[in-house]
Amino acid sequence: MKDLQPAEIVRLEAEAVVVLDQRRLPDEVAYLVCRSVLEVAEAIRTLAVRGAPAIGIAAGYGYALAAARGDDLDEAAAALLASRPTAVNLPWAIAAMRRGSQDPASLAERARALHEDEVERCRRMAAHAAGLLAPGTRALTHCNTGALATGGVGTALGAIREGFARGLVEHVLVDETRPLLQGARLTAWELERAGIPASVVADAAAGSLMARGDVDAVLTGADRIAANGDAANKIGTYPLAVLAAHHGIPFYLVAPSSSVDLATASGADIPIEERDPAEVTDRFPARNPAFDVTPATLVTAIVTEDGVHRPPYRESLAVLAKREPLREGTRSG
């Protein structure tokens, strides 16, 4: 099967934002047509579109759609910002959209430029991260960090795909990722399309597989990385990092610079989204935190499109504050 193209995942049309509805995968490929900013916000909130970079892209398109409809842009921004609190890409994208001209045509062009930038970031970080993998790597990954989550080739999954193309990745272990199974439903589907050997495993099996010597590297994405290198990612990432450290296995975070929040000092300051308990069980009381925070001390390296960042992260990530943007805002008028 051919690779998913960026416009197949999320795109801006004349009167709508169209997203590939991830809630219906892998059984059905269907598209959700959002004709208002509130519908875009609802698509983000209900995980029709998910993954930090893809959330930012969808938010940018939603804001541009609001401008085209003549909606109040302050209200549009507020609705989008309230849809999911943890991924920093969402406020990052809204801030980029609110800089410069607010003319509808300019905003549409700027939103598409933001998407193009994320595609390029994915390509570059995948190349950097693949360079960390040894021949014959059996990689374990969590949640979904591929094209569906990014609008490009992916972050951690993009690195795995690039590693496979270079002959470095032998097999991928895919955490099912409870409670909504983004690994079993989405990552496994993307790997199947790409022809990469993979096995879905229960989240709780990771430690046993590491102990047996079946895992050579753990690669995950991140929804927000603090200035000190602490990182919020899909719930279940933190215990993977603990297990990897115990077994001497490298743990790599692969994320675009748009996920790095230098204004947030540490993971203690990252807001953690609590989702509907019914996603876990509709019979008993439940807790449903969507994310956990992995301390920087457990992270072997953080890979962005700028390269491989090593500890101390407060120093190695600080260079991102001085980087030149790829293109964003350059076509905004």
Q: What would your notes on this structure say?
A:
The chain has 333 residues and is α/β, with parallel strands linked by helices. It has 2 domains: 116 residues, Four Helix Bundle (Hemerythrin (Met), subunit A), CATH 1.20.120.420; 200 residues, Rossmann fold (3-Layer(aba) Sandwich). Helix content is 38%, strand content 17%. The protein contains 12 helices and 14 strands. A 7-stranded mixed beta sheet has the order 6-5-4-7-10-13-14. A 4-stranded mixed beta sheet has the order 11-8-9-12, with helices on one face. It has a 3-stranded antiparallel beta sheet with strand order 1-2-3.
Overview features:
2 domains; disordered C terminus; 12 helices; 333 residues; Four Helix Bundle (Hemerythrin (Met), subunit A); alpha/beta; seven-stranded mixed sheet; 38% helix
